[in-house]
Design brief:
CATH superfamily of the largest domain: Chloramphenicol acetyltransferase-like domain
CATH topology of the largest domain: Chloramphenicol Acetyltransferase
Distance between the termini: 73 Å
Enzyme class: transferase
CATH architecture of the largest domain: 2-Layer Sandwich
Family: Belongs to the carnitine/choline acetyltransferase family.
Mean pLDDT: 86
GO molecular function, one term: carnitine O-palmitoyltransferase activity
GO biological process, one term: epithelial cell differentiation
Radius of gyration: 29 Å
Low-confidence stretches: 1-9, 713-751
Strand content: 5-15%
Protein name: carnitine O-palmitoyltransferase
Shape: globular
Largest sheet: 8 strands, mixed
CATH class of the largest domain: Alpha Beta
C-alpha cells in the first residue's frame, strides 16, 4: 500500500488538543513537479503555436521589419506612402501620447502590418504553387525546365526549418473533380469486368446520372469544398469508420510487425521498457512539433494533420455512431497481463521514466501473482465484437463507481500495452507457420487481450518479439508506420541493451508500483462479454492466413527493369488471381491524398483494360515474350498514371462516395450511385514500405512489414519490397495458385 500512502498529500485528525495535521512532503513535491511539467508543456505548445502561426516567417523577422521601418523614418524617408502619417493623425486625436511616442507607435503598427502582409503573401503564393501537380506526371528522372523553376520557387517560399504543422495553412484544398471526368473514368474501370450488354446498361445509367441528378449533387459538394477544409475526410471518417456497427477487429484494425530476423533481447520486460520509452520520446517530439513534415523530393510538403490524435486517444462506442475522444495529455499507460489491467505512471520526479525504470515496472507486473477479478480477463472482448452491444454495456455498467474510474484509465491512457504470454516471430526451421501465427496474433490475438478501441496497442511477446495493433479511424497506416520506424530504430541503434539483455541504466525502488485497476462486473455484463467474444472468435477463426518470407529479389531488381515496383506487384496479383479464379475482379489499392490539407486516401482501381490485355497475353501460348513485355510496360504505365491521378485529387471513388452521401441527405435515389457503392471489392491490396534503418549499414534489420484483414470474401495482401539485396515479405489472406509467378517475372525482366 506504499503507493496509496504516497498519494495522500496531507492527513489530519481531530483530538481533544485540537487538529493534528500531518503533511507528506514527498506527495507535495510530486504535485509541484507535476504542475511544473504541465506548465512547461503549455508554454512549449504556446510558443510552437506562434512559430507555426507566422510561418514561413519567424517571430524574429518581425523585429527586423519594424527596425527597418523605424530606421527609414529617422532617415526622413516614408516607406509607407503616407500610411504612417495617417496612423499618426489618428493617434493624435486621442491626446494621450507625445509626438515622439506617436511616431514610434505608428512605425511599430505599420511595420507589424507590413510583416503580416508579407507573411500572407508568402503563404498564399506557396499555396498557389502547391496547387500545381504537373510535376508528378513527369517521367522519373526527367524534369522539365519549367518544373525545376517551379520547385525552386516552392523552396524559396517554404522558409527554413519547418515544424511538423508549419505547412498546414499553405496546403491547397482537395479539389472536386468534374462529374463528367469521374463518370468517364469509372466506366473505363468497369469495362474489362463486364460483357457488352452489362457495360451498355451501366453506360446508360452513368450518362443519365451525369446529365440529370449529378450536377445538382455536385453543386452541394462544391459548396462544401469552399466551406470545409476537406470535402471528403470528415464524411469518410464518420460513415466508413465510426458508423460501422460490425467488429473493428480484423475488419478495420491493422497491424505492424517487428524485425524479421533480429530479436534485440529475449527479456520481455526489457524489450517493453525500451520500446515504451522510445514511443514516449516520439510523443515528446510530436508535442513539440520537432518531427519534420514529410516532404516529397525534399521539396513538396504533405499534410501532417493525422498525427494530432496519435496519443491519448480512444474510440468511444455509440448506439448509432462511435466518437473519437482525444486528450491533450496523458501521464500513464494501461498494461494487460494474464487477464489483469495495471495502470502505470510514466513520470516520476517531474521527468519521464527511463527505459530501465519502465522495465522494472513491467517486471513487477510479470511477477504479480494476483488473479483476474470476475469478468476482468475477457473484458476487452467488448471492443472486439459488434459495436452496439459494447455501447449499451458501456452505458449500463461503466458510467459510475470503480468501473467508470478504471475504464477512464484505459480510454485516457497514452496508449495500451499487452504483455502477451505466447512466443511469436519468424523461426528459420518453420518459416511459414511461424509467420502465419505471428501475424494472426497481432491481427486479433485471443480476441480479448488487445484493447481494439485505443489508437494502438503495443504487444510485447514472451520471447521479446513485439508488434502493434492499430485502430484505423483516426489515421492511415503511413502515420503509424512513421512512428514504428522511429521506435524500432531508437530501440536498437540508440537506446540499446546491456550484455545480459536488460535496458541500460539503473533501477529505482522509489517509483510506486503499478496500480491494479478495480472492476465490479455483474453477471449480466459478463454474459454480454461472452457473446462479444463468441462473435469475435468466429470472425478470427474465419481468417485463413498465409505469410511467407520471399528473398528471391526486391524492388531494386524491378527498378533496374525500369518498372514501378508497385505496378509490378499489382500486375502479378492480377495474373495470379486470374489463374486461380479464371476471371477478373474489381481491385482496390489505397493511395494517399496528403498533398492536400487533411487528405487521407483515394482508391486506385488496379484492374484495367491494359492489365487484362497483359494477363490474357500471358495465358495465350501463341504470344511471344516480346509482346508480353510490351503489354506489361503499357499496363504498368497505366497503373502509375491512375496512381498519380488519385494522389492529385482526380480519383473516382471518394468523389462518388461523397455524391452518394449528398443524395442521402437530400433524400433522392440514384440507381447509378446505388449500384456503384454496392459493388464488392473482391481483391483488396495495400502496401507498407516500412524501412527506416539503412540496410546497407545494418543488413540484418529487415522489417517484416504489416497488414490488414480481408474486406470481403476474397483475399488481402500487404507487402514490403526491400532493396535488391534484401528481403521481400508478402502477406496473403487466401492464397492464389501463383505457380512461381514472381520468380518467373524476375527472370523474364532480367532477360
Amino acid at each position: 500500500m506504499a503507493e496509496a500512502h504516497q498519494a495522500v498529500a496531507f492527513q489530519f485528525t481531530v483530538t481533544p488538543d485540537g487538529i493534528d495535521l500531518r503533511m507528506s512532503h514527498e506527495a507535495l513535491r510530486q504535485i509541484y513537479l507535476s504542475g511544473l511539467h504541465s506548465w512547461k508543456k503549455k508554454f512549449i505548445r504556446f510558443k510552437n503555436g506562434i512559430i507555426t502561426g507566422v510561418y514561413p516567417a519567424s517571430p524574429s523577422s518581425w523585429l527586423i521589419v519594424v527596425v527597418g521601418v523605424m530606421s527609414t523614418m529617422y532617415a526622413r524617408i516614408d516607406p509607407s506612402l503616407g500610411i504612417i502619417a495617417k496612423i499618426n493623425r489618428t493617434l493624435d486625436t486621442t491626446g494621450y501620447m507625445s509626438s515622439q511616442t506617436q511616431n514610434i507607435v505608428s512605425g511599430v503598427l505599420f511595420g507589424t502590418g507590413l510583416w503580416v502582409a508579407l507573411i500572407m503573401t508568402m503563404r498564399y503564393s506557396l499555396k498557389m504553387l502547391l496547387s500545381y501537380h504537373g510535376w508528378i506526371f513527369a517521367e522519373y528522372g526527367k524534369l522539365s525546365t519549367g518544373t525545376k523553376i517551379w520547385m525552386r520557387l516552392v523552396k524559396l517560399f517554404s522558409g527554413c526549418k519547418p515544424m511538423l504543422y508549419s505547412f498546414q495553412t499553405s496546403l491547397p484544398r482537395l479539389p472536386v473533380p468534374a462529374i463528367e471526368n469521374t463518370v468517364n473514368r469509372y466506366l473505363d474501370s468497369v469495362q474489362p469486368l463486364m460483357n457488352d450488354e452489362q457495360f451498355k446498361r451501366m453506360e446508360g445509367l452513368a450518362k443519365d446520372f451525369a446529365f440529370n441528378l449529378g450536377p445538382k449533387l455536385q453543386w452541394y459538394l462544391k459548396l462544401k469544398s469552399w466551406w470545409a477544409t476537406n470535402y471528403v475526410s470528415d464524411w469518410w471518417e464518420e460513415y466508413i469508420y465510426l458508423r460501422g456497427r460490425g467488429p473493428i477487429m480484423v475488419n478495420s484494425n491493422y497491424y505492424a510487425m517487428d524485425f524479421l530476423y533480429v530479436v534485440p533481447t529475449s527479456l520481455q520486460a526489457a524489450r517493453a521498457g525500451n520500446v515504451i520509452h522510445a514511443i514516449l520520446l516520439y510523443r515528446k517530439k510530436l508535442d513539440r512539433q520537432e518531427i519534420k513534415p514529410l516532404m516529397i523530393q525534399n521539396t513538396i510538403p504533405m499534410c501532417s494533420s493525422q498525427y494530432e490524435r496519435m496519443f491519448n486517444t480512444s474510440r468511444i462506442p455509440g448506439i448509432e455512431t462511435d466518437t473519437i475522444q482525444h486528450m491533450k495529455d496523458s501521464r500513464h499507460i494501461v498494461v494487460y497481463h494474464k487477464g489483469r489491467y495495471f495502470k502505470v505512471w510514466l513520470y516520476h520526479d517531474g521527468r519521464l521514466l527511463k527505459p530501465r525504470e519502465i522495465e522494472q515496472q513491467m517486471q513487477r507486473i510479470l511477477d504479480d501473482s494476483s488473479v483476474p477479478q470476475a469478468g476482468e480477463e475477457k473484458l476487452a472482448a467488448l471492443t472486439a465484437g459488434d459495436r452496439v452491444p459494447w455501447a449499451k454495456a458501456r452505458q449500463a455498467y461503466f458510467v459510475r463507481g470503480k468501473n467508470k474510474q478504471s475504464l477512464d484509465a484505459v480510454e485516457k491512457a497514452a496508449f495500451f500495452v499487452t504483455l502477451d504470454e505466447t512466443e511469436q516471430g519468424y523461426r528459420k526451421e518453420d518459416p511459414v507457420t511461424s509467420m502465419d501465427t505471428y501475424a494472426k496474433s497481432l491481427l486479433h490475438g485471443s480476441c480479448y487481450d488487445r484493447w481494439f478501441d485505443k489508437t494502438f496497442t503495443l504487444v510485447v511477446f514472451k520471447n521479446g518479439k513485439m508488434g502493434l495493433n492499430t485502430e484505423h479511424s483516426w489515421a492511415d497506416a503511413p502515420i503509424v508506420g512513421h512512428l514504428w520506424e522511429n521506435v524500432m530504430s531508437s530501440d536498437c541503434l540508440q537506446l540499446g541493451y546491456t550484455e545480459d539483455g536488460h535496458c541500460k541504466g539503473d533501477i529505482n525502488q522509489n517509483i510506486p508500483f503499478p496500480t491494479r485497476l478495480q472492476w465490479e462486473i455483474p453477471e449480466e455484463c459478463q454474459e454480454v462479454i461472452e457473446r462479444s467474444l463468441c462473435t469475435a472468435k468466429s470472425l478470427a477463426d474465419d481468417v485463413d492466413f498465409y505469410s511467407f518470407p520471399f528473398d528471391a529479389f526486391g524492388k531494386g531488381l524491378i527498378k533496374k527493369a525500369k518498372i514501378s515496383p508497385d505496378a509490378f506487384v499489382q500486375l502479378s496479383l492480377q495474373l495470379a488471381h486470374y489463374r486461380d479464379m479464371g476471371k477478373f475482379c474489381l481491385t482496390y489499392e489505397a493511395s494517399m491524398t496528403r498533398l492536400f490539407r487533411e487528405g487521407r486516401t483515394e482508391t486506385v482501381r488496379s484492374c484495367t483494360t491494359e492489365s487484362c490485355n497483359y494477363v490474357r497475353a500471358m495465358e495465350d501460348s501463341t504470344q511471344n515474350n516480346e509482346k508480353r513485355c510490351k503489354l506489361l510496360r503499357i499496363a504498368a504505365d497505366k497503373h502509375q498514371h491512375l496512381y498519380r491521378l488519385a494522389m492529385t485529387g482526380a480519383g473516382i471513388d471518394r468523389h462518388l462516395f461523397c455524391l452518394y452521401v449528398v443524395s442521402k441527405y437530400l433524400g433522392v435515389e440514384s440507381p447509378f450511385l446505388k449500384e456503384v457503392l454496392s459493388e464488392p471489392w473482391r481483391l483488396s491490396t495495400s502496401q507498407t514500405p516500412q524501412q527506416h534503418i539503412d540496410l546497407e549499414k545494418n543488413p540484418e534489420f529487415v522489417s517484416s512489414g504489416g497488414g490488414f484483414g480481408p474486406v470481403s470474401l476474397g483475399f488481402f495482401k500487404t507487402y514490403l519490397l526491400g532493396d535488391s539485396e534484401s528481403i521481400c515479405v508478402v502477406f496473403l489472406l487466401y492464397v492464389c495458385a501463383q505457380e512461381n509467378l514472381l520468380s518467373w517475372l524476375c527472370s523474364f525482366l532480367s532477360d
